[in-house]
User: Which sequence fits this backbone?
């Protein structure tokens, strides 16, 4: 579950932190507990990124639909 702090993250902030989480997991050397915590954090960050991208896609689709309607009206 993402918290209020996660919801306030910009796409770029969430993406950058997610990159760091993946880097740390790939580097290894962490305990099982630390690895699980990192994985859970990565999942939360991925959800934040996904929400941002879905919102951007919806805005783009709406703009394209509006443009198409304007062209049809002319």
Assistant:
């Amino acid at each position: 579950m993402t918290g209020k702090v996660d919801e306030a993250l910009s796409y770029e902030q969430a993406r950058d932190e997610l990159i760091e989480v993946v880097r740390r997991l790939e580097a290894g050397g962490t305990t099982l507990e630390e690895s699980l915590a990192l994985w859970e954090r990565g999942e939360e960050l991925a959800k934040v990124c996904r929400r941002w991208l879905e919102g951007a896609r919806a805005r783009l689709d709406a703009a394209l639909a509006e443009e198409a309607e304007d062209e049809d009206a002319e």
Remarks:
- The mean pLDDT is 92.
- Residues 32-73 form the longest helix (42 residues).
